[in-house]
Amino acid sequence: MTDLRRSLSPEFIAHIPRRRYEFTIEEVIAGGAVLTVPEVIAQLAPHKRRLLRSWTCPAYAVRLVAVRCGACRRRWRFVCPVCQERREILYKRPAQRGDDGATWACRPCAGLTYSSKRHGPRHPSRRVPTPRQAVIAKRRDELERRALDSLANSDLWWAQRRDDVLYAMTRAIAERESEAARSAAWLREQIRRPRPIASAPNEITLLFTPELLATLQRLNAGQMSA
Ligand SMILES: [Zn+2]
What we know:
Blueprint: H1 2-7, H2 10-14, E1 23-24, H3 25-30, E2 34-36, H4 37-41, H5 46-51, E3 54-57, E4 62-69, E5 73-79, E6 86-87, E7 89-91, E8 112-113, H6 115-119, H7 131-154, H8 156-192, H9 202-205, H10 210-220
Zinc ion (ZN) is lined by residues 80, 82-83, 85, 105-106, 109.
């Protein structure tokens, strides 16, 4: 790879995209380092939820603000500690060499990409649902159950088969959840393995001596213990 890089023109090398995000969201979710608004705001008393405009959660040291939504409703959102934008979900990326995993931050600030973007749609890590996918799946399951109930109430054919269909649905959900758990366990295993050092800008890479490059490659291969 080194020889190849040296033989390419600097103009060409300047156009090779750098890896922008170090980890995927699914890896961070598998590690449990994810915060959603409902689980954090549950720690605030209901009357304060209606009155306060902003609140800093003492358990996680993250600030939330109440955002107006329509004429009289309000929604709580995180304020990303890095970019100060309003966010629904915060992540904490795993510790890397030279830092302790930093703070809670939104997806781009935490340097996370979606697994589907990095590995494509069929990668096993895609079975780990993001918080939004989990909510959508739960809603869909509930809708299907309700549709089945109303069918069974109005139609004898469905009433006779209701329990069988319900059983099949429950089994499909359990199967999906156990696959997600297996994928999450696999990701947690992967994340502990040494990973490539984030690529330096190419103009800097060209200045590396062969000895330094060899050292970096050994580090990458995990042959040197820190
Ligand atoms: Zn941010």
